[in-house]
Amino acid sequence: MTTGLRRFFYVVSFLVLAVGAVLFVGSTHTARYFAWTIKSPLTAAFLGASYWAAVALELLAARQRVWARVRVAFAPVLMFTLVTFFVTLIYLDHFHLHGGALVTRVSTWFWLAVYAGVPPVMIVLGVLQLRVSGVDPAGSHLFPAFFRGAVAGQAVVLSGLGVALLLAPVWTAGVWPWTLTPLTGRAIGAWLFAMGLGAAQAAWEADFERARIAFVAFGVAAMLQLVALARYGREMDWSSVSGVVYFAVLLGVLAVSVFGSMYAWPRTALARRLPTCRSPIV
Fold first, then answer.
1. C-beta of residue 213 within 8 angstroms of C-beta of residue 61
2. Which pTM was predicted?
3. 222, 257 in Cβ contact below 8 A?
């Protein structure tokens, strides 16, 4: 992996850490500290959990030396920033561009600068990365067939929900287990679509070592979403079909992530600790 792309992931991991802190810790204070007001604390916590999961994804991506183990992160991050930028432009009148306290306006303009600047930077870095000579290392820890099917199914569910929220936020909000606005629905949709894309890339790679960082990030996201439900679960309509489906999907994502991480992490950790044999063993 190129030095420029590695440094990029380090930088954006700190950016998403800050945004996640505002949303996940200060879920009830977005009117003052975030780029737009989110009236639902559960929605704010959902978005904050997603940003903190991205911290894990990007820090782990920055520590890789092989591009094949970073592809699972690159496309989802690029797609998420592009989609979120267009969602921002659609609902620009909802953002705190001029009113409110200084910290509110600063956070808003910071948001716009990041989402306007990150996609072109990523495109340039991606082109430079693809121009690097070399071949991918052979897959050494392939998915079993049943697990590849489970990851592919997760990709279909997450990306499908994401597309529905992005294209039809009002209709989809009507069946969502808690109240969403068109803006927050599309913000959640951007995350779900990006996660679905990451799961699709993992299924395509079909190798535990290449998909490891995605499994860790998905696991962090699922666990933090459970914490968000514990904090603000009163917003959920637990008796609805959508509430049951949402919780089942969340547990499914967590199960796939735990399985993938358990099978991927020990093998890579062991490989790093074993010394390289430079002479034949007699």
1. yes
2. 0.90
3. yes
The tokens for 31 are 């009117």
Per-residue pLDDT of the chain (282 residues; tens, 9 = 90+): 999 999 999 999 999 999 999 999 999 999 999 999 999 999 999 999 999 999 999 999 999 999 999 999 999 999 999 999 999 999 999 999 887 788 889 999 999 999 999 999 999 999 999 999 888 877 778 899 999 999 999 999 999 999 999 999 999 988 999 999 999 999 999 999 999 999 999 999 999 999 999 999 999 999 999 999 999 999 999 989 999 999 999 999 999 999 998 887 655 444 444 343 333 333
Helices (H), the chain: 3-20, 30-33, 41-62, 71-90, 102-130, 145-167, 169-175, 182-205, 208-232, 241-273
CA distance 210 to 202: 7
Burial of 42 (0-12, 13-18, 19+ CB in 10 A): buried
Question: How many residues in the chain?
Answer: 282
What does the domain layout of the chain look like in residue ranges? 3-273
Contact of 30 with 176, CB cutoff 8 Å = no
